[in-house]
Amino acid sequence: MSLEQVLISLALLLILATVASKVSTSLGVPSLVLFIAIGALAGSEGPGNIEFWDPPLAQTIGTIALAFILFSGGLDTSWESIKPVLPHGLALSTVGVAITAVAVALFADLVLDFTLLEGLLLGSIVSSTDAAAVFSVLRSKGIRLKGNLRPLLELESGSNDPMAVFLTIGFTGLLLDPSRSGLALVPFFLRQMAVGGLVGYLAGRLLPMMLNRLRLDYEGLYPVFTTAVVLLTYGGTSALGGNGFLAVYLCGIVAGTYPFIHRGSLRRFHDGLAWLVQIAMFLTLGLLVFPSELVPVIGSGTLVALFLILVARPISVLVCLAPSRKMSVREKALIGWVGLRGAVPIILATFPLVAGIGKAHEMFNMVFFIVVTSVVLQGPLIPLFARLLGLQSTRPETPPYPIGLLADVGDKNLVEFDIDQNSPIIGKRIVNLGLPASGLIVLLHRDGDFLVPSGSTTIEAGDRLLVLTDIEFLPTIQSRLGSQGRCQRP
User: I want to staple 348 with a disulfide (CB 3.0 to 4.6 A). Which of 31, 125, 155, 464 is the partner?
Assistant: First the structure.
């Protein structure tokens, strides 16, 4: 293909993927299914007839993409929201991943033609979950979850990839060298997590300081700098023997807790970049799959997928959340069901391919089938389960605020307040609310429309107010408005 043909093909694939994201929202199907389908249709067995079989390149693209996706996810994560669920989230992302891997390994050893070590590799590959798939389904159906379910799922899915990567690399190494002892994984695990955690924290702490001190002449250079920091954090951590995925995710979380220049625009840039690399990753993985080769693994893939959904995932959730007395059985049941698999298992399935493991090709096709089955089977039922279990929140979905408003507000906070039917401020004008001077109502959402209020604007039942304030004045504003606020991160 000529350069022009490559560019045209790439542009068309990106446009199709972008349109597919809109279609996926309408259908309530996670976008990853449509992205992968587009890649498969563009492949050598589809009408696109693009021949592609390069597992090392696919692994490289997936690794880089995942680094940026995790950094963006960390940057968007609110420390205040995940702090209450930190112990449970970390338990699910470490112990839960290990339990899932072991359960799948035992099943593959007993039911399928896999050795225990091969089963451990397969279980490790499919052990991580994907929050994006879950929340795309919930968002498309307009469903919000009660309590701390959403932050717990976000924390688990954002932090369980490093453990899955560690186990996949570790068991791949054991299969390549059977003489090695499994105990060798213990120091490997400690080094991976310690180095990854330390470098990630330091990078996240230094990033806001460097951004605030640089004072670059051109705003467009700030995204270039943060992009370089992500690559340096991942590459440097991996070179030191640490887990680069843990480092970039932690870097994003830590950096997001501090104010820095152009924070809003940088978050939007990395969100867009994460979507771009995610689409590129899915398309690449779709091209790597030959649909005809999935037919022989339908039986075994279905068995593993059902065992993963109905047995392995629920057991790991029950074990990890057993110490929690505050979490109800219904909440644990929903968490057990929403463990959707995403792109990470498919990326990890390229590791045995590149390493030349005996059953690597069969394993790759099985993992691909398991991921698609998980998303297609579990995804559409999540809203139904949330309603049946009584875990659907009645609070309406937060409206999409005008993007320019949530740009850079320095060290101030944007706080959202709902005015219910019994609020004491209904019928009052804003000027008479007695708000402190640092509490400014910058936007009012009423009947689906956004209004920029003035002092003479009268408050009505059902209004949603967005207030710009310093954090120390928040209790006073909550008292004046008679409502508990929710911080909206700029």
Answer: 125
